[in-house]
Amino acid sequence: MQQDEQLPAAAGDVARAYPELYRAYAALGEACAKAGPIEGEALRLVKLALAIGASSEGGVHSHCRRALEEGVSKDALKQVALLAVPTLGFPRAVAALTWIEDVTESKPEPASR
């Protein structure tokens, strides 16, 4: 679960203003992640794909930052955007790729696992 200090400005403000609400929201996210066998890199990539499908720039940024911290490669993140081309369309996939590059182009590549 992300601490409210690690959230982007507006989300962090809401989390601090309504801590019980944020704790419940974070607990729901954890419960959903533990509800099945998907974990690790696959879980992070699925969450990134969902953020792309929802056209959530903030969600894409968040999942990319977290993925990089967890050792997911930049190329894997970019592939998720490219996989969106046939399903979501070229313009949406290109937008997602630019959102991913907002994060990946400002972060060093993680060390090899």
UniProtKB/TrEMBL annotation:
PANTHER family, sorted: ALKYL HYDROPEROXIDE REDUCTASE AHPD, BLR3452 PROTEIN
Organism of provenance: Belnapia rosea
Residue span, Carboxymuconolactone decarboxylase-like domain: 19-102
Listed name of the protein: Uncharacterized conserved protein YurZ, alkylhydroperoxidase/carboxymuconolactone decarboxylase family
Keyword Oxidoreductase belongs to the record: yes
Pfam families (alphabetical): CMD
Molecular function via GO: peroxiredoxin activity
Keywords: Oxidoreductase, Peroxidase
